[in-house]
Predict the structure.
Amino acid sequence: QVHVVESGGGLVQAGGSLTLSCTVSGSTWSTFSRYVLGWFRQVPGLERAFVTSISFSGEKRFYADSVRGRFTITRDNAKNTVYLQMNDLKFEDTAIYYCAVALPTPKVVHGREAREYDYWGQGTQVFVSS
């Protein structure tokens, strides 16, 4: 059973930075290194929105237009962990951030769609004050 746990959320002023972490347990190093990993975010009343994804090798990364140039996704396969470095945060980045894990199946293309993912964390709240 795969468990996904996010951490690192909190309150930050606009223009500040935060780093979110997501640790995936229940998988070995060899299996974790085959996962596509992603971050999504959600605000009340809206659908969960894609933020960024990273391929199993870490060579391919995709970003939503709203965060490109400010956010960076990285992964450490030795630690079964994926990170989201968020810089120059804006009030509109306020949301619950979810980490997602996609098993290596044909349904996974770029990791931009929620339906591509198999496991989700409980989310971590990020609040940016203006």
Q: What stands out?
A: The chain has one helix and eleven strands. The longest helix spans residues 29-32. The chain has a mean pLDDT of 94.
